[in-house]
Amino acid sequence: MERSPLDTLITLREQELDVVERSFADAVAREAAAEEKLASAQEEILNEQRIASSPTAGDGAVEAFSRWLPLGRKAVAEAQARCREAALDRETVRSALIAARAAMEAVKTLRDEQKEEERQADLRKEQNVLDELAVRQFGRS
């Protein structure tokens, strides 16, 4: 059976959808990794704070914490920025995914409509043949 242009377009849309779905999965994974890094940076600040505020900690530990804290806050701020970027990337790819799915659905709907039109045309042809046979048969009687 000959492939229609719509079948070819569906194949292309399937490939596009597959690429976009993989991109979306990658974006979600990048976002999760960024969130893990943020949680880790926040946890590190809490751990360092616990150590510095321990009853057994000396002045040196408190001073070391106060010198380190700006670095810890910077790491948290950078991780938050990466989380925001990853979330934006995910939303961008999500929009592309929605568009790719809609395009696929549109082509499939068009193909289904075309097949239904072909089926209706075949039924009309069959009915015309039956009508012609009936006219011939009743025309002889």
What do these coordinates show?
- The chain is an all-alpha fold.
- Helix content is 92%, strand content 0%.
- The protein has 2 helices and no strands.
- It has helices spanning 5-52, 59-140.
- Helix 1 runs antiparallel to helix 2 (59-140).
- The longest helix is centred in the C-terminal third of the chain and has 82 residues, at 59-140.
- The mean pLDDT is 93.
- Number of DSSP helical runs: 2
Number of strands: 0
Query: What would you call the shape?
Result: rod-shaped
pLDDT < 50 stretches? none
- The helix-and-strand class reads mainly alpha
Integer average pLDDT: 93
What share of residues is helical? over 70%
The biggest sheet, with number of strands, parallel, antiparallel or mixed sense and barrel status, is: none
How far is the N terminus from the C terminus?
42 Å
Portion in beta strands: under 5%
Report the order of strands and helices.
Answer: HH
Q: Taking Cα atoms only, what radius of gyration do you get, to the nearest Å?
A: 33 Å
Show the helix and strand layout.
Blueprint: H1 5-52, H2 59-140
Please provide a brief summary of the model.
By secondary structure, the chain is mostly helical. The chain contains two helices and no strands.
Keywords:
single chain, 141 residues, mainly alpha, 2 helices, 92% helix, 0% strand
